[in-house]
Amino acid sequence: SRLEETVKKTVTDNPVVVYSKSWCSYSTEVKQLFKRLGVQPLVIELDQLGPQGPQLQKVLERLTGQHTVPNVFIGAKHIGGCTDTVKLHRKGELEPLLLEASGK
Amino acid sequence: SRLEETVKKTVTDNPVVVYSKSWCSYSTEVKQLFKRLGVQPLVIELDQLGPQGPQLQKVLERLTGQHTVPNVFIGAKHIGGCTDTVKLHRKGELEPLLLEASGK
Ligand SMILES: N[C@@H](CCC(=O)N[C@@H](CS)C(=O)NCC(=O)O)C(=O)O
Ligand SMILES: N[C@@H](CCC(=O)N[C@@H](CS)C(=O)NCC(=O)O)C(=O)O
Ligand code: FES
């Protein structure tokens, strides 16, 4: 669908993308982690897009199997949510992904 | 108001009360902390009460100044949210409050 193509293009054109909800603390936490790492993700607040928000969330669920926020992509690869991203960081596996994605 | 009286009675009659939203990870985290401490809070899921949910949230905001979830009370005392409760636990100040409240 058109919206699926939009999401695929967005995650391909931007090294780091976070689909978020502005009032959700887990979304805030993952945005703050990227900020601390000096990374400027593209942040899309699903609750500020009107009717497109829920439609986008359905597309994300079809593409990734994940209906929750935050929904994180690095280098067009689906990473998962907040706990997934924090776990990768703790294991030292997040930075290499960020370097690879920004070097593209 | 009638609803304010209900909240005051609820937090007086139950040693630990958590006003929560069922899909919110911060609400889940604070519920899990109490579970780990062997405490059975009274949990009120604001998103599962129909129109009363938002009304209760307004009353909680009037009574506590806090419009966010989770909203935690121990021994009828307003504690705050998830980060506040975790901070008290880290400082060893949560258990004494729980003991005092359950001993009432
Ligand atoms: N472990 C996941 C949890 C994600 C999660 O449960 N997100 C909640 C908001 S904090 C959500 O989207 N809930 C909507 C739902 O469960 O339908 C993560 O770290 O991102
Ligand atoms: N630091 C607070 C954060 C509370 C918070 O921002 N809660 C969010 C959900 S995770 C909320 O209620 N947002 C609604 C809003 O901001 O209007 C806590 O630990 O409880
Ligand atoms: S809505 Fe509460 S942590 Fe996301």
UniProtKB/TrEMBL annotation, chains A, B:
The record's Gene Ontology cellular component field reads: cytoplasm
Q: Which UniProt keywords apply?
A: Redox-active center
User: Which is an annotated GO molecular function term of this record?
Assistant: glutathione disulfide oxidoreductase activity
Q: Which GO terms describe its biological process?
A: cellular response to oxidative stress
Q: The Glutaredoxin domain covers which part of the protein?
A: 16-79
The domain of life for this entry's organism is Eukaryota
Kindly indicate whether the keyword Cell inner membrane belongs to this entry: no
The keyword Transferase appears for this protein? no
For this chain, the family text in UniProt reads: Belongs to the glutaredoxin family. CPYC subfamily.
| Name of this protein | Glutaredoxin-C5, chloroplastic
